[in-house]
Each structure stands twice: as structure tokens, then as C-alpha cells.
Predict the 3D structure of the following.
Amino acid sequence: MIRAETIIGVLPVGAVPELVLKIIASNIDVHLNLPSEILPFFAPPPAVFDKGRQQYDAGKMLQAFSALELERFKKVVAVCTVDLFVPILTHVHGEAQQGGKFAIVSLFRLDKNPIRAKPTSALYERAVKVTLHEIGHLFNLFHCEDKSCLMHFSSTLDQLDATPIYFCRYCNKYFQMAALR
Amino acid sequence: MRDKMHIMIVDDEMIIRESFSHWFQKYGHFVETAGSGSEALEKLEKIAFDVLFVDIKMPGMSGIELLEKIKGEYPDTIVVIITAFGTIETAVEAMKLGAADYLLKPFKPQQLTLIMEKLTQQKKLTSEYNYLKGRLDRITRFDNIIGQSPAMEKIFELISEIAASDASVLITGETGTGKELVAKAIHARSKRNHSPFIAINCGALPDTLLESELFGHQKGAFTGATHARKGFLEVVSGGTLFLDEIGEISSKMQVDLLRVLDEKKITRMGSSHVIEVDFRLISATCRNLNEMIKNDSFREDFFYRINVITLDLPPLRERKEDISLLARHFLQKYSHETNKHVDHINRDALSLLTNYDWPGNIRELQNAVERAVVLAKSRALEPDNFSFLHTIYAPPSKRVSLQEKEREYIRKILVESDWNVTKAARVLNINRVTLHKKIKRFDLKRNKR
């Protein structure tokens, strides 16, 4: 049984649809069995925007969260609608501090349907999957080789759609132990 | 379970190094970074990395230069070139020099995922290839004997020549020179190779036990003989019997074996039933049998019977060319057995090994490399890993038999006692008659003044 005080903060960065935040928060409760709370929105500092790439630096964004007073929360997952990148990659759907406190999820590319037509409602499912995956990293779970595990890395939306919303038995066991600590 | 890899990121930009590190850490890979080519080479000396991601444009040593050095020193290490200034020419050049792939940053997440899948596959193939190559080496090497020196080339030729005959062979050489391996090689190349090869260390068995082992016994032949048992001379039928440390067997056993060699017949202990035997005898010793014959401790007739062909194995100090080859062979063996990433012996350490005299020969070298691998803290063995060799090193002294020592000591006491036999006998704590017998046996004479 996971302790009730293991609270996950859901932090909107900029204007994020309230429905998405509520869906994410409730899925954290249901799938991870962890209480969550939606926080007041956070305005990102201008320094996190890269003018050359016209994108937001995910690493810098995570650093900016350290300035917030969020001691009450064991882990914080931010949600934004802007396009995120890390220096070596063209874009990322999410980024997390491995074993750390902060993670961020971008909805920017999640409502695109590049190959197979999917209803826009797929956005919610994808947002939940990316969020839970990044929370897994916050509890120090690594990418999993098992394609039917939420911790398997999905580099495309097609792969993300094919990924289930739950951990494999090994990652689940590890997550339960890590969340209890 | 995914294979975790040792990855090094070589880039002069810290932000790129960090970005790569974070990415690979999410897969649980072990990640190290280096800001320059020289730093990367220093780290490669200590740790065996599976993959290096190398930026092509760096101040000082360029990525292409680093790639060349890595492929020269560590050909199994996979290198992926990364750059923000990609051109077809540099990509082609990098691939020609052995780069596994080429990435133009920033790249899509799926490109990095694909490349990692490809590299994991490549790593598996490389280790499989190395394993199979090792097995092939073992098959093609001269029956597990390693050596490229002229002395060993001569031994290899001799082995091939004498294997065809059925004559008895005496292998001489210092301890640890590989006498049993040579015996096995002769057997393996002989027409008897489908029959057993049995090796017995004569020095390790008391006389009665050796007799029972060789000739076998009937039930009740002696106390404890609860059932009949075949001796090795029977079991080896059609094959090769290798008697190591033949100089240690008693005169009685020499007579018994001489008879067997002449008649090719034996009787088990406690039995009168004659059994015909057929085997080839290969003996070995590190002692000087000629000296032993002079001292009456080895039978001359037996010596000539076992010594139809002599093979004298050179000590390791007389074939220094083979030391690095042998050291590398043992390094490979023990790094595999201990599952440690130790795959190098640096130049200074090799020079130390080559200059050492190896009184214990190949066996000592084998033990030294095993010890060094077990205690090694980096991928390369350095002189420090062999520091124990200095402490035990002593210049090789002339090896003399116990009889020679005894003769020399008695002569010394006689000289000190001014050849007064009574006085000398008292010092030696033996009676005068015994001392007189020894003076006669050792042919000791007073020097004329």
C-alpha cells in the first residue's frame, strides 16, 4: 500500500485546458494509486525560450521549477502546450529528471495525426501515457525493452498509441517499491 | 533484460554532453563524458567502452583523428560520429575509417532509438564473433601450445616428426615449460589419438600406490583391495601413457617398467595371469638423468629404453619473443573467466614481463597474469599490477640435485676438519663408516697442497 502523503503535483505551464489537467490528475490516482493535486499555473521565464529553434528548452524549464515552493509535493509533473526540445533532439514529448523531482509533458505534438487518423480524443490518452511514463522516470524507472510496458520508449505517435497505459510486471514491482520509499 | 552499455560522449559543448547523458541514463546505460579527444583516450585506457559518440568538430584533436586512434588501439569499440556541420564527404570519410554511423544534430528521437537498436545488435554480433574466433584459434593453434620463437618452431617440427613413430619419448625441461602439453600434442598427432592419453605424476605417488595404479590388482592382493582393479597400463591400451617426473620412481619400479616395455606384458598385483598391453610411453623430467645415472639413483638400461627420442623444452627466459604472446593469451583467458573488462597490457608492463627471468616458466607467467587480472582496477594491466614479481624475483641459480648438494656439503666439512674423518663425522652427525662410504661414493679426494 502506497503512503497517502506521496502527493504528485500537476503544474500547468501557461494556458493548459483544464479538462486535460483533470484527466491527467485522475489517471495518476487510478493507475499509480498516488494522490495528486492540480497547482496554480506557472508562467515560464523568457530564458527557457530558444529564439534560434523557436522552441522551449525542456532542461531549462525543469531547472526553473526548482525556484517554486513545492516542498509539500514528493514529485511534480508540469504540463504545457508549447513545443519542447533537448539540445540533441528535434523535439521531446516529455522530459524528466531521472530519479529527481520535476518532469514536464508537452501537448504540442500530441494532437497531430501524422499517419493513421485518430480522433482528437487521442490527445487525452497520449497525454496520460506520456505523463505516467515521465513519473516513472521520477521514481527512477528506466526505459523498458518490453513493448507492452508503459516505460517502453515511444519515438512516434503511432508507437505511443500502441503502448499500453500500464507498466509490465517488473516495472510495476519496481515502481511500487520506489513509491513506498 | 536490455544489455546495458558503457557509453562515452565526446563533445566540447557541455550542454550536448549533458543532454546525451540524460538521454542514455533513462535506459540505464553507464554514461561517461569527455570534453576533448585526449580526455577520451585517457578514459579509454581505464574503462572498456562499448560505444563512443564523437563530435567531429572539437578544438585540438578532431573527431576524425580520435576515430582513427580508437580504431587503431581498440578496434572493437563502436564509434558514432555526430556533428552539426554534416557534409557527405566527412560522413564518407568517417565511415571509411570504421565509424558505425553518422548523426546530424539535432536528430529525431526515433533516429537515436534506431541507432541504439542497431548498436546493441552490433555489440552482440561482435562478442559472438570474438567468441567464435577464440574457438577457431584454439582449433588451429598447434595443439594448445603457444609460441612463435625459433626454439618453439623447432619443437613444433619435432613433434610432427616424432608423432608418426611409436618410439618412446623423453621430454626434458624446467618445471612449468609445458611438458605435459607437448606429450598431449604428440599423442593428438599420433595414430593412437583415438585411444586414451593417461598422465601420471610419478612424484606425487608413493611406490606401492604407483605400482597398484600402473599394474592394477586382484581382489585381496593387499589390505584394502576389496575388489579387482585394472591398472593404467591395461586401461591405456592402444593409447599413450605419460609418466611425469620419471626421475622420482624407485629402482624397483624402473625394473618393473623396463620389463613391461620389453615384453609388452603385465600381471596384476596378486595375480599370475599375464595380460598383453600396447601403449606408447612418453616420460618427462626436470631432473638431470645423466647425473642420476652417475650417482646410481637411475638405471642406465631404463634410461636408454625410455629415451629413444629426447625433446628438450627451452625455459621461457630463452624464448623471450613468446612472452608477450603468452601474456596476451592468458589475459584473454582470465578476463573472460573472471568476467572483467581487462583487455590490455601496456607497453611498460610488457617490457617488465619480458625482462623478468621467469624461474617458474610458463606456469609462473600464467599465475602472474591471473593474479594481475583479478586485482586489476582498470582495463589495462600496468607495471604496478605486477609489482609482486619484484619481491619474489631472484636471479636464477644453478639447479643442483640433492646428491650434489650432499657431496658439496660433505666436502666442505671435510676441508674445515682438515680431512679428519672422525671430526667431520661428528659434525655431520653420522658414523665414520658411513662417512667413508660417502667419500668413496662421491669420489671425494683431498686436494694436494
Summary: The first strand of chain B starts at residue 6 and ends at 10.
